Design the sequence.
């Protein structure tokens, strides 16, 4: 009996022929030699095409082919006719761009309006205002004060304006961690990172503002959790974990009680611990019923929690957090959103303290989506780990050389406080702004 069947195929493609929608599964060189963090991804925008063309000669893509079954031919579980060889057949590749994306179409392409150096001073003021507001919200709710939504919106919108000018400045500040103020600090960090992610996804300004407000308010339910459970240094018991999980329900109740039009924020507070595999809480929602903004906040929430100092854990490096997110894509997180978030954050996000292969140490002040291994770095320690006599910024995209003619390459990210480098001090003392910044727009 004749019929058709669908088979997965692999095709080598010259980078000049790449198109949006193609699923890249292999490169012509090791992944670690490129700027691509995710090993296998669907091309969603032309910037990724351009990056592949810069770094590769060809890639291998995966697609599907509709085949005609011959009379009497049986098809194996893999989709290929039994006894057939992939190499002795010709395939008509089906268009991979027909894959349905869970990410809405990009509507805005943003270009940073100012340099990090120009934006950082404003960003510091906005960040401090936002932290004060987050503390006020959380402390006020603990004593049953009314949530001032208008003030929350105003502060969030000011942060969004900074993100739209240059997201690197506020993203850098989210790397400053304080264990004693984790909950409030976490809420504003999630708000800022969500705004940066929304910008990366091409959302319009109003959507970014709404997403950032959801980030600020996503954990308000924790104000109903006893401090001895919230800040317990050890593992929670089953009963304690049940109490902790109730913060999602409490958050929904708190936001509904304001009487304000906060439908999206209510949905996010209630649903940001749901999972794509249906094993989340509090309702075990299937993937298709989890609100889109809740899927986003779930990613950002996890990333900031892993990279923060907690009563029961040390802060992990950004790369470790991204590896955990990548490992759990498709089960805990939406796969496409996870890949997009990993690309947005990059391997060395702003605020990372990095050690070079030649021993120098610096602070990342700006990262680039198409050059993840080559950010701009403020150099603060020499090969002996002594403070550099004159701070300067190196743009690793320009392949700068040290005194021995060796090109600077990042070896690894190190924790805040390593070699006496405390990010908060450099921001507080204005050293990131006042350093001589070649290539940056500083007056």
Sequence:
């Amino acid at each position: 009996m004749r019929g058709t069947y669908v088979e997965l195929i692999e095709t080598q493609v010259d980078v000049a022929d790449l198109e949006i929608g193609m699923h890249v599964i292999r490169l012509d060189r090791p992944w670690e030699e490129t700027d691509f963090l995710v090993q296998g991804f669907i091309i969603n925008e032309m910037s990724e095409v351009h990056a592949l063309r810069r770094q590769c000669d060809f890639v291998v893509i995966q697609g599907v082919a509709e085949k005609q079954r011959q009379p009497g031919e049986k098809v194996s579980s893999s989709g290929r006719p039994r006894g057939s060889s992939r190499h002795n057949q010709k395939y008509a590749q089906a268009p991979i761009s027909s894959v349905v994306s869970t990410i809405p179409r990009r509507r805005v392409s943003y270009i940073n309006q100012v340099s990090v150096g120009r934006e950082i001073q404003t960003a510091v003021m906005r960040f401090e205002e936002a932290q004060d507001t987050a503390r006020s919200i959380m402390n006020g709710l603990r004593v049953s004060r009314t949530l001032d939504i208008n003030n929350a919106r105003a502060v969030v919108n000011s942060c969004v304006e900074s993100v739209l000018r240059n997201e690197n400045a506020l993203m850098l500040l989210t790397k400053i961690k304080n264990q004693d103020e984790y909950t409030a600090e976490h809420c504003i960090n999630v708000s800022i990172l969500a705004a940066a992610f929304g910008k990366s996804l091409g959302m319009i300004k109003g959507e970014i503002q709404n997403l950032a407000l959801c980030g600020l308010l996503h954990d308000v339910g924790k104000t109903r959790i006893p401090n001895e459970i919230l800040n317990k240094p050890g593992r929670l018991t089953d009963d304690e974990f049940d109490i902790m999980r109730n913060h999602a329900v409490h958050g929904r109740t708190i936001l509904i009680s304001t009487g304000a039009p906060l439908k999206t924020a209510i949905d996010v507070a209630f649903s940001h611990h749901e999972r794509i595999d249906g094993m989340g809480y509090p309702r075990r929602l299937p993937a298709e019923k989890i609100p889109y903004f809740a899927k986003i906040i779930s990613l950002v929430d996890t990333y900031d929690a892993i990279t923060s100092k907690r009563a029961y854990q040390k802060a992990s490096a950004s790369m470790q957090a991204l590896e955990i997110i990548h490992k759990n894509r498709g089960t805990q997180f939406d796969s496409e959103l996870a890949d997009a978030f990993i690309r947005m954050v990059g391997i060395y996000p702003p605020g990372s303290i990095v050690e070079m292969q030649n021993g120098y140490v610096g602070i990342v002040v700006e990262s680039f989506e198409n050059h993840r291994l080559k950010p701009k770095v403020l150099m603060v320690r020499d090969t002996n780990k002594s403070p550099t006599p004159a701070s300067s910024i190196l743009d690793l995209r320009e392949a700068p050389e040290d005194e021995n003619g060796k090109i600077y390459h990042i070896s690894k990210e190190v924790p805040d406080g390593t070699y006496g480098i405390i990010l908060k001090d450099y921001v507080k003392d204005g050293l990131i702004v006042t350093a001589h910044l070649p290539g940056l727009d500083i007056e």
Q: What stands out?
A: Strands lie at 3-14, 23-27, 41-42, 58-69, 353-356, 361-366, 376-381, 387-395, 410-414. The chain is about 40% helix and 15% strand. Residues 393 and 437 are 5 Å apart (CA to CA).
